[in-house]
Design a protein that fits this description.
The protein has about 750 residues and is of the alpha/beta class. The chain has 24 helices and 33 strands.
Length: about 750
């Protein structure tokens, strides 16, 4: 056993006297990073040639020795090397969670003279586009590190030879997703394939894409094609597996997925190992730095220097220029625009004569019990209470909010827009939209479209020469948000809605920044959101916590950590679930005899709910509860002990405004407009997708709860009431509606 860089390790398998024969050889051993530390990747260098290994493999006896329990993190590793003739040095490096590679072992080696020569690497020109974008993202992520060091990380990563692994007999199977590429939605990687054993039954199947969190996969689904071909395998007719694994945002590239199979006799085997490049479909991605020609030029120069240090040929000058132009075009299209300074309106007076008739059509993207429909309901109710104003509602989807609008005196119509959304061109979209929606524009003075998904309504108002307000609550770029919803030919139609609307209204400056590039006509407005403080205070007085818990079948004596929001990947409930699993044993020992429950309110039937329930069942998480969407949302603020928001993307979530008004301790991801709402001394704020930091924040919130410390909750309540009381905010929105109509009439 040796120690270096504070790590304990041993290289147990290697050629005698480090004399490598021609061809492939194995190096294997174990490494322990220390308490509360772990290795996220491992590689070997043979002179200047890198080889990626398989790290984090179960090492029976050693994991228990170092951790006091079985892993993960696991301590074993293997590397397959194919040293070239004349190589003289072997180095081993490990990567830590911060992305730093550290050498922990080196030795002189010899290689048989009949070994192959060093295969010449492909020139920099062949990888320059991807390498430049990777370097720019690393620079944005770690601005304090020298570009040369970051360039070395990018170049060495692109040169490294990966090691993958398929099942060895008596296991048989195939990993079908991911392969060379893996697609991520909000930090979740889909894992699918099939696996069977020749004679034994596979008891558990788990997947690991980081060092610590092992995710259960569902094995045993019907797979008739396997049963017909591999007739000799045990359980061959139900060999399909599916599931998800979390992929940390700072994971090395290419990332490594490992799938482990545990037999009924307790043996645990590596079934698959697959290196893949992660592609973000939705959710948090590492952002490019703001557009800058000097930054781009410095990145190119740093890559050139790194290529020379690694003995990498540059390639033809014409090819380098072409690839640099490609990289610049992508950088220019995807780099965030430098934020402009915007300030919310401080005061406004409604123009025109009070009582002037004003007929408003409110368009909501759906009628579900979600934040955006509740937002526009409260806005519509405020408008309808103004003298001379009347409101009716249009939605492309049916839902339970119809009753809420109707009971408030606002009639609702539903139009089927499925054919319009399936269009592939602007002309086809316009034609389908005209057939799907017929409106009496003579009786409409203003259209209010809620959410970016309602862009189509702005175009209808424009064609009818009526003014419109477009409220945008999404904080995702148009092409990413609509990537799977609309054909690319409709993206310009969405973008043009921002320019033809009379006003585009944002409640968060961070959300406005995403769309600043479309503000060519000066029609963007930043208005504060609101919370109905008086209604919340009255509700608190009228309802006690215990009776509400009994009403909804919840334990009156439990400590309830409540997550409110429609169950969907964007809301990050899978991270909440993984955090519950992460804290399961620690909370049991820290608070013996205390019942601590993780409650999710907003369940709706679908694959996402099914996957969460499956993970909870496989993980034995009896303290995780799923409750359906409800219109009685105030009940759950009142009965909660701690409020938890795990979203990857938000604009200005009303759930945080309301939970703060209810004086709840808040643990939340710090995304988009949340930072404009609450500070670190008012809530426990964590990055999205990070179950470890979320777990630490929940432990701090629980400690405050059990000691009676309400200071954060009180500061959050005071801040929200001061800045977002509806008596201050809602009149600004009503005034804007009157202003837009008055300007149109003049």
């Amino acid at each position: 056993m040796s120690e270096n860089a504070g790590w304990q390790f041993a290289v147990e398998v290697h050629p005698p006297q480090w004399a490598f024969p021609a061809g492939k050889s194995w190096v294997a051993g174990w490494i322990f990073a220390g308490e509360n530390r772990f290795v996220t990747d491992l590689r070997a260098w043979v002179d200047g040639r890198p080889f990626l290994g398989l790290h984090g493999l179960p090492k029976q006896g050693f994991d228990e020795k170092f951790l006091g329990r079985p892993g993960p993190p696991y301590s074993g590793f293997v590397i397959q090397l194919n040293p070239h003739r004349g190589a003289t040095m072997l180095r081993l490096e490990a990567r830590d969670p911060a992305g730093r590679w550290t050498e922990f072992f080196r030795t002189a080696i010899t290689v048989a003279p009949e070994a192959a020569d060093y295969p010449p690497p492909a020139p920099l020109s062949e990888r320059l586009t991807e390498a430049t974008l990777s370097l720019l993202k690393l620079h944005a992520q770690r601005p304090g590190q020298p570009l040369a060091a970051l360039a070395d990380e990018v170049v060495s990563s692109s040169l490294a030879e990966p090691l993958n692994s398929l099942p060895n007999p008596p296991f048989h199977g195939a990993l079908e997703e991911p392969r060379e590429s893996g697609w991520l939605r909000y930090g979740r990687l889909s894992v699918t394939g099939w696996l069977a054993h020749r004679t034994e039954k596979i008891k558990h199947l788990t997947a690991l894409a980081d060092a610590v969190q092992e995710s259960p996969l569902r094995l045993g689904l019907a797979r008739p094609d396997i049963a017909h071909v591999f007739t000799e395998l045990s359980g061959n007719d139900h060999a399909q597996f599916v599931g998800h694994v979390d992929l940390p945002a700072n994971q090395s590239t290419p990332a490594l997925l490992k799938v482990f199979a545990e037999l009924e006799n307790g043996e645990k085997h590596l079934a698959f190992a697959q290196r893949f490049t992660a592609h973000i479909l939705a959710g948090g991605d590492i952002q490019l730095p703001p557009l800058s020609r000097p930054t781009f030029a410095r990145a190119l120069w740093a890559l050139r220097g790194s290529a020379r240090r690694h003995g990498l040929p540059l390639g033809a000058a014409s090819d380098l220029i072409d690839r640099a132009r490609e990289a610049w075009a992508i950088y220019r299209a995807e780099a965030p625009h430098r934020p402009k300074r915007h300030a919310p309106r401080k005061s406004a007076k409604p123009p025109g004569v009070p009582g002037t008739p004003l007929r408003i059509l409110v368009v909501t993207h759906n009628l579900n019990f979600e934040g955006a429909p509740w937002f526009v309901f409260e806005l519509a109710r405020a408008l309808s209470r103004e003298p001379g104003l009347s409101v009716r509602v249009l939605s492309p989807a049916e839902g339970p909010m119809r009753r809420v609008f109707a009971e408030a005196g606002m009639p609702v119509e539903v139009a089927d827009l499925s054919q319009a959304f399936a269009a592939t061109s602007a002309a086809e979209f316009e034609q389908s939209l005209r057939h799907a929606v017929t409106l009496d524009w003579a009786n409409i003075d203003l259209l209010v479209a809620n959410t970016m998904v309602s862009f189509w309504a702005v175009h209808l108002a424009r064609a009818a020469r009526k003014p419109s307000l477009l409220y945008v609550h999404e904080s995702s770029a148009i092409r990413r948000f609509f990537g799977r919803m609309l054909a690319p030919g409709l993206f310009p139609v969405v973008e043009s809605a921002f320019q033809v609307a009379s006003r585009v209204v944002f409640t968060a400056a961070s959300t406005r920044t995403v769309f600043d590039y479309l503000d060519s006509k000066g029609n963007f407005e930043l208005l504060p959101s609101w919370v109905d403080v008086a209604r919340i205070d009255a509700f608190v007085v009228a309802h006690d916590q215990s009776s509400l818990r009994r009403k909804h079948g919840l334990d009156p004596d439990a400590v309830l950590l409540v997550n409110i929001g429609s169950l969907c990947e964007r809301k990050g409930q899978h991270i909440y679930l993984r955090t519950a699993a992460l804290l399961k044993e620690e909370l049991r020992f820290t608070y013996p005899g205390k019942k601590i429950q993780f409650v999710m309110v907003g369940a709706r039937p679908g694959l996402y709910l099914d996957s969460l329930q499956q993970e909870a069942d496989l993980g034995g998480l009896a303290n995780v509860l799923f409750l359906p969407e409800t219109g009685e949302i105030f009940d759950f603020y009142r009965l909660a002990d701690i409020f938890v928001c795990t979203s990857f993307e938000e604009s200005f979530p009303r759930v945080l405004l309301e939970s703060a008004a209810f004086r709840l301790p808040i643990v939340s991801t710090n995304v988009n407009g949340i930072a404009e709402m609450l500070g670190a001394d008012e809530a426990w704020l964590v990055p999205p997708g990070d179950r470890y930091q979320l777990g630490e924040a929940l432990k701090q919130a629980l400690a405050a709860h059990f000691t009676g410390d309400t200071s954060r909750a009180e500061r959050a309540r005071a801040a929200i009431v001061q800045r977002f009381h509806e008596e201050r905010s809602l009149p600004l929105h009503v005034a804007l509606a009157r202003t837009v109509v008055a300007a149109h009439r003049s």
